[in-house]
């Protein structure tokens, strides 16, 4: 296994993991793993092939054979599934909900495990997800568990969707978020939970630069930067 250092950023939907991880990786010049994208891609590929979400064997085969490429980085990063840019399709709310369902299946998680670990390369990796600190990189040098109240997360998501020109409303976003939180936290395999040695940051009253500064300070304390 690579000995490159890992910063794990786990937390529920809308807590800011993706944004913070991307900025952190840019600032440090490290690689980035958006593990949620792999579950979203599995869900999208399965939906396109008409597979049932209950069919763990078929879905694990889809996950294991995903032909995916992450091209470029930052805001302009492209996600290619079988050569097609599916960046927008996988970000849709229905794909997030479908990802949460396929992610509850042990065989799917097993099929994606090594693919995630392969992202670990020098000079380091920022890994964003639900089980980065507990399962995928239990030896991560720094584990952050990012949270925010459900209301705050839903209103962030509403603003994000509106900015993208997607229509949405707060009550239905709150309902979807609560459903996804419950499914991600209660599943039997790799549920969403902080690792014992994770540092919890509640970003409810913090803006993005403040969260980033806090994590950078922790990284400095641990001599990672
Ligand atoms: N600390 C914060 N304060 C306000 N808005 C935030 C904060 N962190 C993230 N956001 C915004 O919330 C939305 C969801 O963030 P995102 O990074 O996609 O969350 P996640 O990856 O955890 O689902 C984005 O529009 C992002 O700009
Ligand atoms: N390491 C991971 C990452 C995501 N998942 C699942 C659970 C999530 O509901 C879906 C989508 O994750 P993603 O991080 O892209 O979603 P959010 O941006 O947080 O809304 O995938 C997971 O089970 N384990």
Automatic annotation (TrEMBL):
One of its GO terms (cellular component) is cytosol. CDD domains: CMPK. It catalyses: CMP + ATP = CDP + ADP; dCMP + ATP = dCDP + ADP. Its EC number is 2.7.4.25. The keyword Cytoplasm applies. ATP binds at residues 11-19. It is an enzyme of class 2 (transferase). PANTHER family: CYTIDYLATE KINASE (PTHR21299:SF2), CYTIDYLATE KINASE/PANTOATE-BETA-ALANINE LIGASE (PTHR21299). This is Cytidylate kinase. It comes from Acidihalobacter prosperus. The gene is cmk.
């Amino acid at each position: 296994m690579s000995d490159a250092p890992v910063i794990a950023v786990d937390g529920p939907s809308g807590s800011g993991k993706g944004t913070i991880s991307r900025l952190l990786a840019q600032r440090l010049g490290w690689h980035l793993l958006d593990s949620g994208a792999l579950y979203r891609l599995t869900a999208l590929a399965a939906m396109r092939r008409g597979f049932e979400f209950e069919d763990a064997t078929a879905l694990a085969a889809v996950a294991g054979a995903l032909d995916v490429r992450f091209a470029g980085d930052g805001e302009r990063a492209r996600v290619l599934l079988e050569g097609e840019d599916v960046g927008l399709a996988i970000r849709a709310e229905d794909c997030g909900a479908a990802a949460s369902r396929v992610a509850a299946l042990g065989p799917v998680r097993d099929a994606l495990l090594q693919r995630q670990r392969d992202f670990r390369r020098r000079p380091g990796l920022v890994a964003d997800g639900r089980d980065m600190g507990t399962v995928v990189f239990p030896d991560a040098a720094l584990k952050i568990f990012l949270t925010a109240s459900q209301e705050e997360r839903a209103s962030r998501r509403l603003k994000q969707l509106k900015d993208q020109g997607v229509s949405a409303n707060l009550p239905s976003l709150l309902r979807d978020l609560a459903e996804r939180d419950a499914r991600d936290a209660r599943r039997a395999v790799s549920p969403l939970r902080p690792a014992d040695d994770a540092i919890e940051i509640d970003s409810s009253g913090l803006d993005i630069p403040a969260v980033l500064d806090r994590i950078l300070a922790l990284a400095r304390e641990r001599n990672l930067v």
